[in-house]
Amino acid sequence: MFSLRDKKLADDILFQIEKAQVHLRFMHVCGTHQDTLVKHGLDMVLQKRGVEIGQGPGCPVCVTTPKEIEEVLLLAQKGKTIATFGDMIRVPGVSSSLQQMKTEGCDVRTVYSIEDAVALAEKHKGKEVVFMAVGFETTAPTTASVLLRGPPSNFSVLCCHRLIPPALQAILEMGERKIDGFIEPGHVSTIIGTKPYEFISKDYRVPQVIAGFEPLDLLMGVWMLVRQVQQGKSEVENEYARAVKPEGNRKAQQILTQVFEPVDVKWRGFPLIPRSGLRLREQYESYDAGKKYEKDLGMLTEEEFPEPIGCLCGEVLRGLISSTQCPLFGRECTPETPVGPCMVSSEGNCQIQYRYKNK
Amino acid sequence: MCLAIPGKIIELDREKQTATVDYGSGTKRKANVSLVSVKIGDYVLVHAGFAIQVLDEHEAQETLGLFRDLLSLEEGG
Question: What is the CATH number of the domain that holds B38?
């Protein structure tokens, strides 16, 4: 019986990688990939065989900008009910975090799904419920689906959704780090399919493999990249075919386009990345917290909110350093006392390193 | 964040676009199925309360074949 944790098969793949005698640097953009790599020690095993593999800007909570954090804090302070996913609550802003504000009496709720936030708005008609919508292409369709259904008018969305392919291009354009191949995120790819990655291979000659999340998926993904490099190819291959169809999820893509339009946005640690964010289209404007509370939020400008002092989350997210190279790692910055978002999120590189390697 | 959990659809309400998904070990939860076309018995990936894709059993079996092929190809030549 086939098992995705078959030790013999893992050994066979590692043997082939070793035999290839390569010195390569790959990047992935997914916290779940990083979790699998570090938890099972695959990062070290691969490093010994000449393959260095690290995380790029693949953690939606981590790439939210300091300004976005201040926006949600301000809305909480103004008496709105804030609903968002668990990790977001603990990300520190300049003066506070949602968690801190909750202890000071602000109404902050952790939800598992955007539907829970809508249910809150339906139940408490007198409250203004703002859902802070973070997440990549995997999560954005859930926001779109809910808005198409016409939630109550006391519900709105602070839209922080972002798109993966433009970020890959930004990394390559910045050219700060040699990248011999990308492991692409499996669940983002269930939605977008293989096509949106193709320009990366064509224009930048970088091999790519979409991979699943079991240890064998990742080892196989790495091996497929090694083979492409050896054969001088740069293509988009799909290791995760059991979940990723070449065309992706057309239904989800269609409603994404219906509700959102691409917009230039900043990512933490990055300059403005063209068409890498999603904005609600005009007909859904009444649900756009950015517009609804424009008067309050208009006071905030990007320049006012620098990264926390000493925090190297930006360098970690661009794949320039490993978390343990940050002077704050494990000292001032721990999961209990996070300085930057990469130590807060369970998908953040720093938190993962701390969780598995700092025991 | 992009974590998605596989489960089997055991009940389906097409009108409300919800399904009961069995994740094994007795864990069952409602999921929104507005993003997929599904029937009872399908395996789906669920992310943040929404089924985002139907899993392909045939492809899952093929994965093994693909792995073996790639490796033996390499050993052979």
Answer: 2.30.30.140
The whole-number average pLDDT for the span A2-6 is: 63
Helix axes A114-123, A140-148, angle to 10 degrees: 30
Contact of B23 with chain A, judged by CB distance below 8 Å, is answered with no
Any idea which of A206-220, A267-281, A314-328, A345-359 has the lowest mean pLDDT?
A: A345-359
| Angstroms from B55 CA to nearest CA on chain A | 5
Counting one residue from A and one from B, how many pairs have CB atoms under 8 Å apart? Answer: 120
Residue A257 included in any domain: yes
Confidence of residue A2 (pLDDT cuts 50, 70, 90): very low
ipTM of the shown complex:
0.92
- Cβ(A41)–Cβ(A71) below 8 Å: no
Domain that holds residue A176: 7-58+164-238
**Weakest mean pLDDT among A35-39, A302-306, B16-20:** A302-306
Instruction: Please tell me which of the candidates B2, B32, B57 has its beta carbon nearest to residue A187.
Output: B2
Nearest to B50 among A32, A142, A241 (CB): A142
What pLDDT score does B1 carry? 58
Shared domain check, A103 and A53: no
- Residue A259 sits in the same domain as residue A153: yes
Q: Are A352 and A38 in contact (CB under 8 A)?
A: yes
Sequence letter at residue B76 = G
Does some domain include residue A2? Answer: no
Mention every residue, 6+ apart, whose C-beta is less than 8 A from residue A343.
A329, A333, A334, A335, A350, A351, A354
| Sheet with strand A236-238: strands edge to edge | A51-55, A24-28, A181-185, A208-211, A236-238
Look up the pTM and report it. Answer: 0.94
Residue B75 pLDDT greater than 70, yes or no? no
Residue B62, domain extent: 5-76
Q: Does residue A168 sit in the same domain as residue A45?
A: yes
The pLDDT of residue A352 is 96
For residue B66, how many other CB atoms are within 10 A of its CB?
A: 15
- Residue where a domain stops, chosen among A207, A238, A269: A238
